[in-house]
Write a structure and sequence with these properties.
alpha/beta
Length: 613
């Protein structure tokens, strides 16, 4: 119950109106149920002649409400028998019973209807909050997590919360109300028998509780393993070409089957415990009814009971009716534990810290009045992804407005890490990164990144139309602006040759396009954004000669009047750069123009000679 209240406070309080309406209709339902059972007493007395008393109409008296209600009900019943006979009276009472039952089922239905917006709304809100959190978290968070496991949390774990926790909300509302009202009636009819029941039921409740103690831990293990299974599936699909090339199908299949077998064993163990709840509760409930039947019957037979036989039968009906809500209420404990295990995994995302934060008092960047881009400077920057493992060591770099600076070096030298620090994908540990003389940590993240356009080695496209991919991040872009950007990027002609032109859906990650086409759409996206700073991360390294020529032309158009940092794999593409920085082991070891570095005869000269063959 405590876990459920935590979720209610966090996610469900905004739905409190429908929540309290559901409580109201559950109370009405329970009252109608009790009232319908009350008709059993006169029906039994008429059938078996158990009451031969004479009743007279009594005036309403709130101090003796029970006596007045019982007396007037029997007066009404006896009057009907005297006027119309016992058979007609039974028909009237049966009709009342049907009418009350119809009202009861209607209020029962409404109690569920009012709760549905809360149940599904909470699940929607959790998913939305998870997605918002995921897109706000730094890139570093996802380097430590498997993509498949993230997908498992936003899909399977949230579904488990809905099926376990939110589905149990109805039970947690309805059954305590029913139990409380039924107990009130039982105390009203016979407090002696009810005292005996209240001693008996907690014993059975404790026995039920011992079965589900390990359920949450097992459910958490199962959810973690399901995340691993989805991660393996995602990795296999992404790397299927490599799997087949290395004849590794059987090895991958064996690894996957081992994971699914572990999941199979865990699921069976969890279900064994869940399935045990019903027979246990059924058995314990029957034992409780039998014990109360024996105890109450003994009191009546001995003449020591404060109720007659008909009232005792009514009491037993109410008591038997309380057994099912008690059983269901106890089972919700198992169900909630499963859902809370899923919620624990969800909270690993929702509660994840984000070190990339806006400053309390952000500074404002000056406008680029000259239209030649922004100034970038790294001062004595040292950075590592893990403590004690430095990727960049005391790096300093100055890029003037409108300059093109190329970063070259062997793989692992720190090139991509260096450019990732400029848009604050990571924060530096030592030193400063400045844009137009302002430390990037003193700017709003959104303002900083709005200055920059990125074209990466792998063009990231979404499973959407060509138009929406180019206009990504520029929501008010017109058709004319998108087409103009595509023309500059040498993309317009091939787009118009596609079956639906700019409305053609490019497929998952742009799978319907060639590498060069994807890259030119990515460049068109950057052109449309029109950023003062451009970051090119090996944008042509994976292309064939013809595609590279077209992309290079598009890049030259894009780089005009912009501050550009280029990570280059093919050195022939950066010969015209204003400055070339050579990196090795996290340091800039050479700096100058293409001609100056060749004349120096150092590391850059060796790289050029290696590529020229």
């Amino acid at each position: 119950m405590k876990d459920l209240m935590v979720i209610f406070r966090r996610f469900a309080w905004k739905y409190k109106r429908v929540f309290f309406l559901s409580i109201l209709f559950n109370i009405i339902t329970s009252v109608f149920t009790i009232f319908s059972f009350a008709f059993l007493i006169p029906i039994l007395q008429i059938l078996f002649g158990l009451d031969d008393g004479v009743y007279h109409r009594m005036a309403w008296d709130w101090h003796n409400l029970k006596e007045v209600l019982v007396n007037n009900f029997y007066y009404f019943t006896n009057t009907l028998i005297a006027d119309y006979g016992a058979t007609t009276t039974l028909a009237v009472l049966a009709g009342f019973l049907v009418g009350v039952t119809i009202l009861k089922t209607m209020t029962y239905y409404l109690s569920d209807v009012f709760l549905l917006p809360m149940r599904h709304g909470v699940v929607r809100d959790i998913r939305n909050e998870m997605y918002a959190k995921m897109v706000s978290l730094p890139i570093g968070f996802f380097t430590l997590e498997h993509k498949g496991d993230i997908i498992a949390r936003i899909s399977g774990d949230v579904a488990e919360v809905e099926n376990s926790v939110m589905a149990s909300v109805m039970s947690m509302i309805r059954y305590p109300i029913m139990i409380a009202l039924y107990l009130g009636v039982m105390i009203y009819v016979s407090w002696q028998l009810t005292l005996f029941v209240l001693i008996l039921l907690p014993i059975f409740g404790w026995i039920m509780g011992t079965v589900g103690r390990k359920l949450k831990a097992q459910s958490l293990d199962a959810q973690n393993l399901w995340g691993e299974i989805l991660s393996s599936t995602e990795e296999t699909i992404g790397g299927l070409r490599v799997v087949k090339a290395f004849n590794a199908e059987s090895a991958m299949r064996s690894r996957f089957e081992k994971q699914t077998q572990q999941y199979f064993n865990l699921c069976n163990s969890i279900q064994y415990r869940l399935l045990l709840a019903h027979p246990m509760s059924e058995t314990l409930g029957t034992i409780a009814v039998a014990v109360v039947l024996w105890f109450g019957g003994s009191l009546i037979l001995s003449g020591n009971a404060s109720i007659d036989a008909a009232q005792f039968i009514y009491y037993m009906v109410i008591f038997y009716s309380i057994i099912n809500p008690a059983k269901e209420f106890s089972k919700t404990g198992y169900t909630v534990q499963k859902g809370m295990a899923a919620m624990e995994r969800i909270d690993r995302i929702l509660n994840a810290g984000n070190p990339i934060k806006d400053p309390e008092h952000p500074r404002t960047l000056p406008e680029d009045s000259a239209g030649v881009g922004s100034e970038i400077e790294l001062r004595d920057v040292t950075f590592g992804y893990k403590e004690g493992q430095e990727v960049l060591k005391d790096v300093s770099l100055h890029v003037n407005p409108g300059e093109t600076v190329a970063i070259v070096g062997q793989s692992g030298s720190g090139k991509s890490t260096l450019v990732d620090l400029v848009p604050r994908f990571w924060d530096v540990e030592q030193g400063e990164v400045l844009v137009d003389g302002i430390n990037v940590k003193d700017l709003r993240v959104k303002d900083l990144r709005s200055l920059m356009g990125n074209v990466n080695q792998e063009a990231i496209l979404f499973n959407d139309s060509v138009f929406n991919n180019i206009a990504f991040g520029v929501p008010d872009a017109t058709r004319e602006q998108v087409e103009a950007a595509a023309r500059i990027a040498n993309a317009h002609d091939f787009i118009m040759e596609m079956e639906e032109g700019y409305d053609t859906v490019v497929g998952d990650r742009g799978s319907r396009l060639s590498g060069g086409q994807r890259q030119r759409i990515s460049i068109a996206r950057a052109i449309l954004k029109n950023p003062p700073i451009l970051i090119l991360d090996e944008a042509t390294s994976a292309l064939d000669t013809e595609s590279e020529r077209l992309v290079q032309e598009a890049l030259e158009h894009l780089m005009k009047n912009r501050t550009t940092i280029v990570i280059a794999h093919r050195l022939s593409t950066i010969t015209n750069a204003d400055k070339i920085c050579v990196m090795q082991d996290g340091k800039i070891i050479e700096e100058g123009t293409h001609t100056e570095l060749l004349a120096l005869g150092g590391h850059y000269h060796k790289l050029v000679m290696l590529q020229q063959g």
